[in-house]
Specification:
This protein is α/β, with parallel strands linked by helices. It has 23 helices and 11 strands. Strands 4-3-5-2-6-1-7-8-9 form a 9-stranded mixed β-sheet, with helices on both faces. Helix 2 crosses helix 11, helix 11 packs across helix 17 and helix 11 crosses helix 19. The two termini are 76 Å apart.
């Protein structure tokens, strides 16, 4: 019993807590019902309420059962309060006023002052509760009687009766045999009892003795019909219909006339009532829980009506925010990926071995021809500018997208032009018979003039591109122009080495600044949303807690518990993309001696074969170069699309329960194209699908993929040195571009 009591107490507390979340008016009917049922749930007494319209004899019936005139009775409506009759060693009355004052009196005369209607037939406003104590053996078993005001007289009285019925374990509905079950009584039976889970009801017909014998027989038949049509939840074997002539029963009890009490129907009713109570009382929960279930269902319905709109609103907000953040994250990752790739390409280009391989020969020749300044401007600077721009453009993309810190330009400056100090000229400067004395070009350099100058230029190419066997005796006879050529080569190497080290250092410093540009701040959510989120959490917790307490007492619910809403990280934070870096660092020392990379540092070592310098004519781009260009194009297109999404008035709009923006985009891209309005447009679209090699119902995603494939196959840069195929590729790309434009804009 103690465990059951604790369960009921927890359930009552949960009901009160859940109802508090509804912010009900204290004087509202629902609030009063909740308080009443919660208090009754933990009440150890078994309460029997006498219920019916005024002047049906409710107080008279109770007085007859108690054996005295305990309760006030009259021919006009008298009971102006709910009077609880409890066991006591003597008859006394306790009245508690609204202000907390308690009034104790011996007997029940004080009821005339506090518990009856005034001259205007109004209940007193200052009375909170009225209790009468009586030494009756039935009450001593833990039973309480509840004498309710008559209904159908005043709304205020009806509200009190309706509220108090929830605290009754058994209801005695008194009927007037002379006007059996009026419309008002039937409505009250349905609305006040049945619909609220109160089904332990006994009908008692009064005033049957005032009818003629023939009328009594007709009324009894009607009473049986009423009783059979109402499915009372009473113990098996007990009727839910009894006849008691109230006033004759009271007179018989007051006189001690047992025979008259029996003939009035009182004795039979009392016996049945005591037996019913004896069965129901030990398991009061089975009687009370249906009322709790009805009230709890109303609370859950009201809570759900508050929870769902807030949950939908917060989900909509979260979906929009998450979609925006997802777009920004994807953009940041894409931009960072492009930045890292471009930085890697520039770092790879700045690696000294790569610079030497690509530029040393031409630079040394330019130096020998007194043309180094022009070579630096037209060749080296052009290539550097292109690579620097490829790096910086990603940061400006990020600034345009996120509006964080404005990026600085990447400036890698060139070292001072290399200087060469000529050795003394030998006497025989016209000897051009040494290996490598091949004239390249017809100009006269600033180092040497005439054929010897041309021989120096030729020796540069020879030394950098031929294998020379170690022959000490030949080296000893080295020609003057070969010695000068080596000086040019060494000067250029020093220049490129200086340029490489300083350039890589500047690039490393520049790369450290990326976190201030390619990033975005996830701001705090508005205080209004935070408050709604907290309110939603409280409502859901109250709803779920009530569900758990109902389950403990075996009350099943049609509702499912709410899942805990995700907690918002309501702090400002920055998102910094950190995808895997592209490994394009300069080549590491693999153990090959420096002398093997460049022979000019040690004149006693012959030069290893090195890749020849690039030809003067522009070669056809390799396929991987076209892939790189196309990769940049795809990244730029994707970032532009996301930027448009972010700035569109309809961006990130998601309705409750809808897909995320990403899912919507996928859905849209897989929809069949809308039908064109004219036949001409139909023909253009059909032809466009054919050019791309697609069916006419292909999705936009399939169109994009087909376009990518064809561009990579027919890019004109792939056929620069093939005039016939170049023209064919240009024509093909014209058609492909036109088809893609038609299908992507329709």
């Amino acid at each position: 019993m103690q465990q059951q009591y604790e369960s009921y107490k927890d359930l009552a507390d949960s009901l009160k807590s859940a109802s508090a979340l509804l912010n009900l008016e204290r004087k509202s009917q629902r609030h009063q019902d909740i308080i009443t049922i919660c208090n009754h749930l933990v009440n150890p007494s078994f309460r029997i309420a006498v219920f019916g319209p005024f002047n049906h004899g409710k107080s008279t019936l109770l007085n007859a059962m108690l054996g005295n005139r305990t309760l006030p009775i009259d021919l006009i409506p008298t009971t102006g309060a709910s009077i609880t009759v409890k066991y006591g060693s003597d008859v006394r009355t306790r009245i508690i006023l609204v202000n907390g004052t308690e009034i104790y009196r011996s007997g029940t005369e004080v009821l005339q002052q506090f518990a009856i209607l005034d001259g205007n037939r109004q209940m007193r406003k200052d009375v909170a509760s009225v209790e009468v104590f009586c030494p009756h053996p039935f009450l001593e078993t833990g039973v309480e009687f509840l004498d309710l005001p008559g209904t159908n007289d005043r709304d205020e009285q009806d509200n009190l009766v309706r509220e108090q019925l929830l605290s009754a374990d058994l209801v005695i509905q008194l009927l007037d045999a002379r006007k059996l079950m009026t419309l008002g009584e039937r409505e009250n039976l349905r609305d006040w009892l049945l619909d609220r889970g109160i089904k332990t009801v006994i009908f008692v017909a009064n005033f049957l003795n005032l009818l003629e014998p023939d009328e009594q027989k007709q009324v009894q038949n009607r009473l049986l019909f009423v009783a059979e049509s109402f499915r009372a939840e009473l113990p098996p074997g007990f009727s839910n219909l009894y006849r008691v002539d109230g006033l004759p029963a009271l007179r018989a009890r007051l006189k001690g006339d047992v025979a008259a009490a029996n003939s009035s129907g009182l004795a039979a009713f009392e016996t049945a009532l005591q037996n019913i109570v004896g069965i129901l009382q030990p398991n009061r929960g089975s009687v009370r829980l249906p009322r709790v279930e009805a009230i709890a269902s109303q609370i859950q319905f009201s809570l759900k009506a508050k929870i769902d709109p807030i949950a939908i609103e917060i989900k909509s907000f979260d979906d929009k925010q998450n979609t925006k953040i997802e777009i920004k994250q994807k953009a940041a990752d894409l931009i960072y990926k492009g930045f890292v790739t471009s930085v890697g390409e520039l770092r790879d280009w700045l690696a000294l071995p790569k610079l030497l391989t690509k530029y040393q020969a031409d630079a040394a020749v330019a130096l020998a021809e007194n043309n180094f300044k022009n070579w630096q401007t037209n060749i080296l600077k052009k290539d550097l500018t292109q690579l620097q721009f490829a790096v910086v453009k990603w940061l400006y993309q990020a600034y345009d997208f996120f509006q964080e810190e404005r990026p600085q330009d990447l400036l890698i400056r060139f070292p001072s032009e290399p200087q060469v100090i000529l050795p003394p000229k030998p006497s025989n400067t016209d000897d051009l018979s040494e290996p490598g004395s091949i004239a390249v070009g017809g100009g006269i350099g600033w180092l040497l003039g005439g054929p010897v100058g041309a021989a120096v230029v030729g020796s540069i190419s020879y030394l950098l591109n031929k294998n020379i066997q170690k022959q000490d005796e030949q080296l000893a006879k080295e020609s003057y122009h070969q010695e000068v050529a080596k000086l040019c080569i060494t000067a250029v190497e020093d220049y490129l080495s200086n340029f490489s080290s300083k350039g890589l250092s500047i690039l490393d410093e520049y790369e450290q600044k990326v976190d201030k540009v390619i990033c975005f701040e996830v701001s705090q959510e508005p205080l209004e949303v935070t408050n709604k989120r907290e309110n939603l959490q409280q409502l859901q917790n109250g709803f779920n807690h009530l569900l758990r307490e109902l389950e403990k007492v075996k009350i099943l619910s049609n509702y499912q518990p709410y899942k805990e809403i995700p907690k918002s990280n309501n702090t400002k934070r920055k998102y910094l993309p950190q995808p895997k870096r592209v490994q394009t660092s300069p080549e590491k020392d693999t153990g090959v001696k420096r002398e093997q990379e460049n022979p000019t540092k040690n004149t006693g070592t012959r030069v290893e074969s090195v890749s020849p310098p690039p030809p003067k004519a522009s070669p056809s781009p390799r396929k991987e170069e076209v892939e790189a260009k196309f990769r940049d194009w795809e990244l730029n297109e994707e970032i532009a699309r996301m930027k448009a999404e972010m700035r569109s008035p309809k961006a990130c709009q998601t309705s409750p329960g809808s897909q995320t923006a990403k899912q919507q985009d996928t859905t849209q891209s897989n929809k069949a194209p809308n039908k064109p309005k004219t036949q001409t447009e139909k023909d253009k679209i059909t032809r466009a699908y054919g050019i791309l090699g697609l069916q006419t119902n292909a999705s936009l995603a399939e169109v994009k993929q087909a376009y990518r494939t064809l561009v990579k196959k027919w890019h004109p840069d792939l056929f620069v040195n093939q005039p016939q195929l170049l023209k064919q590729a240009q024509d093909k790309m014209h058609l492909v571009n036109e088809a893609y434009t038609i299908l992507s804009n329709k």
